[in-house]
Every structure is written in structure tokens, then in C-alpha cells.
Amino acid sequence: MTQPKLKLGIAGVILVGAVTYLAIAGMQKGWVYTVGVEQYLALARHDQRIRICGTVAPEELAINKAQLAANFFIKGTDKQLRVAYKGVVPDLFKEGAEVVIEGKQDAAGVFQADVLMTKCSSKYEGMPKDHPPTAGMATQP
């Protein structure tokens, strides 16, 4: 192998290695498990980022849009978890709303969320069978 080919080969190996490392590191940081409230509370460790889905409980719901914060309980079927959220509060966030939160639990047992998403179930419900078709949509038999 000649000198320029050897240099290009070494540079190629280094480049592929760097790209592979960055891809793996980025994927690991972006992977977050999604669990329900009961599943989360059953976990032995609460020291990693996780995504929890549930419903906003009516107890102690405090929304402060001016300070970009909300304190609330997220509930599952029979258990609930205290949440402190910092960030822009979605317009659809209210008591009884289905939400997905992401973050970590602190030493005091409060889940510190930095991501709060609300679900809009009516947006994904099917149209009633007697609803007239809209222009451009195929009718269903």
C-alpha cells in the first residue's frame, strides 16, 4: 500500500469510528422508556430518565403559566405520583387530561418533569357512521 492510500485508509477508519460513536451515544441519550404510573412505582430504581403516561388528578392541581410551571398528581388506575413541571404548559392541560411526562424523580420523591405532552383523544376518534363524507375523502362501505 502506498503512503497516500494508507493515510486515507486510516482517516476513513477514524471517521467511521467517530460517526459510529456519535450515533450510539445519541441513541442511548434519546431512548426513554414509557411506562404507566403503577409500572413506574413498582420499579426498584428511579434514578434514570423515564416517560410516564397517565391522567391529571384533581387533587392539588396548580398551574402557573406566567412562571412556566405546574404542580400536580398524575394517576394511573389505582396509584398516583406527585409531579413538578417546569416549562411551557400546554393549553389542553387540565384536570382529567391524559398526559405524558418525561423526567426523573428527585430525592424527595417528587417527579421533576421537563417534558409535558397532552393527548387529544377526540382528534383521533373515528367519525360516526352517519356522518356525511367530506370532499376528497373516500366513503367507507
SSE blueprint and pairings:
Elements: H1 3-30, E1 34-36, H2 37-42, E2 50-56, E3 62-64, E4 69-75, E5 80-86, E6 98-105, E7 111-118, H3 121-124
Provide keyphrases for this structure.
single chain, 141 residues, alpha+beta, OB fold (Dihydrolipoamide Acetyltransferase, E2P), 2 domains, elongated, disordered C terminus
Task: Explain what you see.
The chain has about 140 residues and is α+β, with helices and mostly antiparallel strands. The protein has two domains: about 1-30; about 35-120, Nucleic acid-binding proteins (OB fold (Dihydrolipoamide Acetyltransferase, E2P), Beta Barrel). It is built from three helices and seven strands; from the N terminus they run H-E-H-E-E-E-E-E-E-H. It has helices at about 5-30, 35-40, 120-125, and strands spanning about 35, 50-55, 60-65, 70-75, 80-85, 100-105, 110-120. It has a five-stranded mixed β-barrel. The longest helix is centred in the N-terminal third of the chain and has 28 residues, at about 5-30. The protein is elongated, with a radius of gyration of 23 Å. The relative contact order is 0.13. The model is unreliable at about 135-140 (pLDDT under 50).
